């Protein structure tokens, strides 16, 4: 038993580092991707906006489509194989981005990056299946801090590397880091993978019929999409909102960067503790807390007049993220047959990618209709509707505090 415990802890340590670097590699290029597109030709402002938008969106679009396919393959062949496919593929594709001089080739490589995605959901699936059930919430909470902190540090590190070296060299450095992830995953991650007695294709019924509670699974996947939609609806306008609150005076870009980073910092701090509380007090309680807390924190952001107040509320949003994302993953893990864990975690990534696309789109539309503060109110209302749906379709959520600890 001791050896098994040491095995899952080693997996957790290696995959934490892997998801950290993968999250960092995915987000590292975001601050300067539009600038890089601008180097590909003499574009008008409208053309640059169009090409930049396409370059950003194509990766999420592909992830949303192919993630379920990779998840099915993971359940057939094992999650470690998918970790190796993803890390090696991303290392090659992102490294090659440093050598392109044509915007359409860059878009093609971003398309291929979407095909190579899947490291983080397969890491989550492997941890979920290799970790004792009584520790799964804690382990997934800790793993969440890996890719959250990677996403947090990535844009900052990418901006520094691009400034000190060059944008092209930053892509190459990121590719090298992902190659290190491949080697670590190959040599140090262990999976006790045993194929299901009946192949997935031969199991009776469709995918949802293989779950004891298909409605719960659908509700959780939709919740992932709406939570991520809420996070991403803020992204396109946060710097503009900061500029408005600061009356266009002072270090606006620095303050906007700090404000954007605050939720990630608080998620990093809160997710492991909330995961432990979920294991000891019940995941239902943590999910209810996450929804209520997020709704209460989003609404007032649309009415603030001080940058300090906005910063405090954005920090609090990270706490709700630390409750919501790991808890949804833990509930998916606990309510999924082991032979379908990779499939369902990949579906979860697919819904998260859809949320990213919808959030960016709706954030821009809502801000045009109702100004910046309307985006925060729209997000709060979306989460409120999501919470009502959860209460309707997951009965255990209606009385979470009546349950025994």
TrEMBL record:
<keyword id="KW-0812">Transmembrane</keyword>
<feature type="transmembrane region" description="Helical">
    <location>
        <begin position="12"/>
        <end position="36"/>
    </location>
</feature>
<feature type="transmembrane region" description="Helical">
    <location>
        <begin position="140"/>
        <end position="165"/>
    </location>
</feature>
<keyword id="KW-1003">Cell membrane</keyword>
<keyword id="KW-0813">Transport</keyword>
<dbReference type="InterPro" id="IPR001958">
    <property type="entry name" value="Tet-R_TetA/multi-R_MdtG-like"/>
</dbReference>
<feature type="transmembrane region" description="Helical">
    <location>
        <begin position="249"/>
        <end position="271"/>
    </location>
</feature>
<feature type="transmembrane region" description="Helical">
    <location>
        <begin position="283"/>
        <end position="300"/>
    </location>
</feature>
<dbReference type="GO" id="GO:0022857">
    <property type="term" value="F:transmembrane transporter activity"/>
</dbReference>
<dbReference type="InterPro" id="IPR036259">
    <property type="entry name" value="MFS_trans_sf"/>
</dbReference>
<feature type="transmembrane region" description="Helical">
    <location>
        <begin position="82"/>
        <end position="101"/>
    </location>
</feature>
<keyword id="KW-1133">Transmembrane helix</keyword>
<dbReference type="GO" id="GO:0005886">
    <property type="term" value="C:plasma membrane"/>
</dbReference>
<keyword id="KW-0472">Membrane</keyword>
<feature type="transmembrane region" description="Helical">
    <location>
        <begin position="376"/>
        <end position="394"/>
    </location>
</feature>
<dbReference type="Pfam" id="PF07690">
    <property type="entry name" value="MFS_1"/>
</dbReference>
<protein>
    <submittedName>
        <fullName>MFS transporter</fullName>
    </submittedName>
</protein>
<feature type="domain" description="Major facilitator superfamily (MFS) profile">
    <location>
        <begin position="11"/>
        <end position="398"/>
    </location>
</feature>
<dbReference type="InterPro" id="IPR020846">
    <property type="entry name" value="MFS_dom"/>
</dbReference>
<feature type="transmembrane region" description="Helical">
    <location>
        <begin position="48"/>
        <end position="70"/>
    </location>
</feature>
<feature type="transmembrane region" description="Helical">
    <location>
        <begin position="312"/>
        <end position="332"/>
    </location>
</feature>
<dbReference type="InterPro" id="IPR011701">
    <property type="entry name" value="MFS"/>
</dbReference>
<feature type="transmembrane region" description="Helical">
    <location>
        <begin position="171"/>
        <end position="190"/>
    </location>
</feature>
